[in-house]
Amino acid sequence: MQTSNSERLKYSAGIVSIVVNILLFALKYWAGIVSGSVALLADAWHTLSDSLSSVAVIIGVKLSSRKADKKHPFGHGRIENLVAILIGVMLAIVAYEFVMESVDKLRNPDSKAIFGTLAIVVTAVSIVVKELMAQFSFYVACKTGSTSVKADGWHHRSDALSSIVVLAGIFLQDYFWWIDAVLGICVSLILMVAVYKIIREAVDKLMGESVPDEIVSQVKAIIGETIDGDLQTHHFHIHNYGSHSELTFHINLPPDMTILEGHGIADRIEKQLRERMNIETTIHIEPKKKTELVK
Asked: Does the global pTM surpass 0.85?
């Protein structure tokens, strides 16, 4: 089975993430050992945990790209939504750990980390690299519509935010003993908002969404270009399966039109929507009412 451009982009995002995260982990861990910074060591393990979400993305892409079968006639695309939920849960755990660490620091103001120049440089590099990785993941997610890659992007950003907390603690802890803890709680709140958005988007796609107005308008425009006359459309429903979408709606045709003629009209519309919007369509035909015929 050939790999599509969309799948290649997703694989690239996952592989780049794993390689860069392992390199950053090694760099942070080395800096943490040299400087004796517990905070930097913890941040290193957080970076390594990002690789797990990237592995989940690759597995999700692999499974979701499988062809439809008898048990799954619409394919396996929704696996990506399940992976996004999994990554969201992982992010929630990270946020919870931030809160617990921050509360512990507020309770123990004497526990200060010892940082050096190496720790500052490594942390600054980590912030830049992780934000670039987040932007790349968001770009891939925008191009492919992948919720799991988007969730992985938020995981990268969470690591960048945690590194910002470490960096802020380095420069400000001599002036405000509580700054590291307060920033940690703020980051946790930001992450929880991201978790909510990630899980809500994935759950909405699993449960079913209303058809966006722009899609309805585009469908009606294509129908107007394809079929002569006023063809009434209604009852739009869409089902998202990750790699493709299934659209259903009703059209009203004259009651004296033959089945063959009605089928021909529906077939032409379905073909145009498939070619121009990459949407598989099922059209239900209804007879026009007498009042509609008079109009």
From this structure: no
